[in-house]
Design goal:
The chain has helices at about 5-30, 65-80, 95-105, 115-125, 150-155, and strands at about 35, 45, 55-60, 85-90, 110-115, 130-135, 140-145. The protein is of the alpha/beta class. It folds into two domains: about 1-30; about 35-160, Glutaredoxin, CATH 3.40.30.10. The strands form two sheets. It has a five-stranded mixed beta sheet. A two-stranded antiparallel sheet has the order 1-2.
Length: about 160
């Protein structure tokens, strides 16, 4: 094989490797929903999330930024749940009883579960608290914010309902 043929072969191999790496990254970034056990003991079936736009929040009962954001998150949930958006939150508290008490104390009704290795795989290592993700109908994470969001920014998340 001449030099030109070797260069083509090498270029082609690099291109295939890069394509495979991109494909693997894209597959890894997809959220493949499974059933989620909520803090209240109910099970949210994967079928309630698959093919829908899901607003996900990761929070903790001890987080002051979460305490300021969650009332606005509750308002968003009350106004838009089932209207093009689904909602699911994960507490990173170590004690589920503390997360349940926090939800009851504040009368939050948005679906809440404990963070698990599976949810951590879906959303990766935390970048801050609270953390909000938007998962589109295909399971792709199309938005992520790792800090307290202003009420108007939370309300603006409704733009994703048409994805």
């Amino acid at each position: 094989m001449n030099r030109r043929g070797s260069l083509r072969l090498l270029t082609g191999a690099i291109g295939v490797s890069m394509w495979r790496a991109g494909f693997a990254a894209a597959e890894r970034d997809l959220v493949r929903w499974t059933d989620v056990t909520l803090l209240d003991g109910r099970v949210l079936p994967a079928t309630a999330l698959e093919g829908r736009v899901v607003v996900v929040e990761i929070w903790a009962s001890w987080c002051p930024f979460c305490a300021r954001q969650n009332p606005h998150f509750q308002e968003l949930y009350a106004a838009h749940a089932g209207r093009g958006l689904e909602f699911l939150t994960f507490s990173i508290d170590r004690d589920p009883a503390k997360a349940r008490a926090y939800m009851a104390e504040h009368r939050y009704t948005f679906p809440a579960a404990m963070a698990t290795p599976r949810s951590e795989k879906w959303f990766g290592p935390r970048q801050g608290l609270p953390e909000v993700h938007i998962v589109d109908r295909a399971g792709r994470i199309v938005f992520m914010e790792a800090k307290e969001m202003f009420p108007e920014d939370l309300r603006a998340l409704t733009r994703f309902s048409t994805l």
